[in-house]
Amino acid sequence: MDDFRDHLKKTIERVSERLARDAERQRELEHERRLAAIRAQSRALVWTGTAEELIATITKWYQSGRIVAESIQDALQKASIHFLSPEGTLVIPPSVKASATPESPSLKSSEGRKTGTAERPKKQDLSRYLDTASLTDKQYQCASLRWEHSLSVSEIARQLHISRKTVTQHIEYAQRKMRLAGLYEKVKKGLSKVRLEE
After folding, report:
1. What is the CATH number of domain 105-198?
2. Which of 7, 117, 132, 138 is the most exposed place for a label (fewest CB within 10 A)?
């Protein structure tokens, strides 16, 4: 009788273990099905990390030039819609503001725009022209660093963690906007030492 009980007990344990394994496998399969459904519904990527980690990653991509955007907030809005949690919800909710994102330390201009340099004083103050030209933050930073602080394109790229090509594009766009506003010629006259185009 004891042998029968031991045998029955061992059989119950094996069946219980197998049921637990099967249940775990079913959970894994269901999880994979949900991920597949998310992928099928959109071109979204599944992010298994935290929202803070994704914000830090997007910020790093923005600073390295992998994401082209007008500001870090714009980069977050553009990139965050492509990342869903395994449950199918957005990892970064639309309510996340730029204040929640890390920024590199920098100096602010007269209108509170960041110029990206705290160690070099301005050689010329062109903020009245730059402020009225409706420049984006990146265009303002690049133009200010180039024309007011006399930094080279390479130095600006290194300081803002973006490519030289991106810096050149921002400066070109700033020039176009300033030409449209009739300000570029005034700035060009005021800059005898700094080459505006490189």
Report:
1. 1.10.10.10
2. 7
